Amino acid sequence: MYLRFAWRYFIGKKSANAINIIAWVTTGVIAFATCCQILVLSVFNGFEDIVKSLYSSFYTDIKITPQKGKTFQLDASTINRLKKMPFTNQMACGLEEKALIKNESFQAVVQLKGVDTSYAKLSGVPGGIVNGTFETGDSINPLLILGSGVQNALGVTFNEALPPAQLTVMLPKAKILSNDPLESISEANAYASGVFAIQQDFDNSCAITNLSFVQQQMGLDANAFSCVEIKLTAGYSAEKAKKEIATILGPGFDIKDKYEQNSSLYATMRTEKWAIYALLCLILIIAAFNMVSSLTMLVLEKKQDVSVLLSLGGSPRLIQSIFWSEGLLLGGLGTIIGTIMALIICVAQLNFKFIKLTGGSFVIDYFPVKLITTDILLVVSTSMLISFAASVLPSYKASKQKLMLR
Question: Is pTM beyond 0.90 here?
């Protein structure tokens, strides 16, 4: 019954056209704000998915590192036990250290990562090879896989007609037995075997080679590692796996999932997403002021109707509910229109990719979108809550109106 009154008041002709205009403007602003919020959240979701996919090529499901120092010892029996656990799909041990790589007059400081033969099975790096092949060699004949930025910095070219570029790798020794600074640095030659292009941060700073070569050059034994990386069995919980790993290894280790490994990036993305959402909520609040004006004018317009309802036995609560319903009708209509508009635009973008990114330096050339039901429900709830709050004061004033019949 309340909505029937509200609908009649919404579509009915008023003595002043301004009331109709303000009502439709209010509905339009709510629709625009709702549409913008869903679109912005969907675009952020799309970009977040792309960033996660790029970083997941380098960040594995689980990474184990020492809490203190750079390296730790892990015996063969513990490694085998971890490999046989039900959560382990693939596992690789690695050793990371800053290194200086030289190519004649060119040089670059990189994060050199020594990996074992299992690394190619759990990492997305082999899929990002743009030149050459994913080969790391061995301790006698080491091969280097360079990030594309490192390749450019070193001036390395790949040509089948020419032999691979010979590079000089300089690494710090773990155990320094002399006061001579030169004795604390090892130097060895390696050949470039491939180039990967995954994400700018990695491309400009990373190089990969075999584990035994890095251990040998740093003067470490075969049980010394700086990290152990695990690809989880499909459907296995990362939190559960972390607890089981902690039980096996004991204290002294940091065990992180792929999001904890780069928590600052994901936290920043989340903060930006919700900051934009909060900013767009201001548009809804502005629409709420329009709604207050529209409902206040409607209360004045319908004074005689209110008096008739009161004379027929209607309670102040009935009057309040009618004008509450009017506010919810304005907000609900705007929310529905805005949601439908946003869904149409998102579906069209997913299928036709008609909104392009300018610049040409991105991984994709269009705005990515991803619809998440919880985001849509949040936007709809926010819009309706603000509409409800904006209806409180005008509906309360209407319920306090005195009976006036002439």
Answer: no
